[in-house]
Design brief:
alpha/beta, five-stranded parallel β-sheet, two-stranded antiparallel sheet, 17% strand, globular, binds iron/sulfur cluster
């Protein structure tokens, strides 16, 4: 695994970062035990850079993955709350993840983390990273097709629409409609639905 300095922070991070959004409740909602095994496998493979957020709901997955892990891990987290007190609470909540280092408050740093849902998907991504050959069967078994969809009992309140910055959501026949060709599966619309009508499969 190659490592690079994260901006000018002095933090050395793996060039392949593990994005935890996909395993959390906004997306596949993988339970903590299974999710932590996938993250731990990534750590064991040399990935030392994890991306999370308060809204991702993956702090416990990460905490369990770190149990007994001796390496140095950098965790990037973020929160969308406004106000000092709310942010202090958000930091405190993140602080339960571990006593390791954090990359907080670097608004001008940009990195891409790869969300991985299964150990097979991790293996495939590691192969791609190392420029190794990946056959079609491995690719197919790695992640499978995922889609965001709106449950038919959608109340038509429209709360979710503003959360989508990809113009993938609209109202059709008084129900939310997702244009899959535009949807990037970020899951941000899910947390805006008070009725849990948006799912990923
Ligand atoms: S998952 Fe993201 S891109 Fe897709 S509809 Fe929801 S907010 Fe838009
Ligand atoms: S927020 Fe939920 S209930 Fe409201 S329109 Fe969107 S999917 Fe439907």
């Amino acid at each position: 695994m190659d490592y690079a300095e994260l901006g000018k922070t002095g933090l050395r991070v793996s060039r392949l970062a593990f994005g935890t959004l996909t395993i959390g409740p906004l997306q596949r909602n993988i339970d903590e035990t299974v999710g932590s095994v996938i993250i731990r496998k990534a750590l064991d493979a040399g990935i030392n850079f994890l991306d999370t957020a308060q809204s991702y709901g993956t702090y416990n997955h990460i905490r369990r993955a770190l149990e007994g892990f001796a390496g140095d891990v950098v965790i990037a987290s973020k929160s969308g709350v406004a106000g000092y007190d709310e942010m202090a609470e958000a930091v405190e909540e993140a602080d339960v993840v571990s006593s390791l280092r954090y990359a907080f408050d670097f608004p001008h740093l940009h990195a891409v983390a790869v969300g991985m849902l299964t150990e097979q998907e991790l293996d495939v991504n590691l192969k791609i990273y190392y420029h190794q050959e990946v056959d079609a069967e491995e690719l197919a078994s790695a992640g499978g097709d995922k889609r965001m969809f709106v449950v038919k009992f959608c109340k038509g309140c429209g709360n979710c629409l503003e959360a989508c910055t990809h113009d993938a959501l609209s109202m059709v026949n008084e129900k939310a409609y997702i244009e899959h060709s535009k949807c990037v599966l970020c899951g941000y619309c899910r947390k805006e639905c008070p009725h849990s009508m948006i799912r990923i499969i």
